[in-house]
Structures are given as C-alpha cells and as structure tokens.
Amino acid sequence: MSDIQELSPYELLGGAAVLRQLVDRFYDIMETDPRAAGIHAMHGKDTTLIRDKLFEFLSGWLGGPQLFIEKYGHPRLRARHMPFSIGEAERNQWLLCMYQAMSEIAISDALREHLEQAFFKTADFMRNQD
Known about the structure:
Elements: H1 9-13, H2 15-32, H3 37-40, H4 48-61, H5 67-72, H6 77-81, H7 88-103, H8 109-125
Helix pairs in contact: 2-4, 2-7, 7-8
C-alpha cells in the first residue's frame, strides 16, 4: 500500500510563485489583447487589487491555502459578478486570456486539460446574459 498522497492542482501547478505568474500574465494579456477589450473595460485602470483577489481565490480553488475565504469570506462568485453583464462573449474573452496565460507557463498537458475544463465550467457559471 502506498502512502503517497495525491497532489492538489495548486501543488501540481507549482504553488504560490507559479500561481502569481499565471494571474499576472492573465491580467497582462487582458490589458493588451484587443480580443479581450470587453472584459478589460469592466476593470479599473489599476488592477493591483483584482490581481490579488484572483490570486487569493485561485489559491483556495486549486486546493492551496484558502486566502480569499480567510480575508473576505465565502467567494459568492455569481453574486460578486452580477453587477457586470457577462454573456458568452465575455466568458470567451476571460477564457482566452486564461488559456493563453496557462500556455505560457510550464505545466503538464494533463493539468492544463483539467484546468481548462474547470475554468470553462466556472466561467460559464458566471454568465448572467444570454
């Protein structure tokens, strides 16, 4: 019998340092890729706080430290995103940025595929427009 624990996506990704790279690259792409103009317009000019919030949320969501919950309580993702008009176009822009950011960091194909599916489900759940 093996006592090796299965690693969380957070650990497989590389922990906090790699997650920070992913989040920063995501926002860098969002701010510079014209295909993401719709979601970029939903954010303020200074993305420092929102970068930190996404990093903190993804830390716990991926099985690492529950930084967001410790600071802000339950994420209530849908409720927090209700003030924004999110349809398929916005979902797809968000995914474009995240998938591009993931392609630029060294992660296994299996983890990338798992995360792409998980991000799609979560991003699709945020839609509040047809």
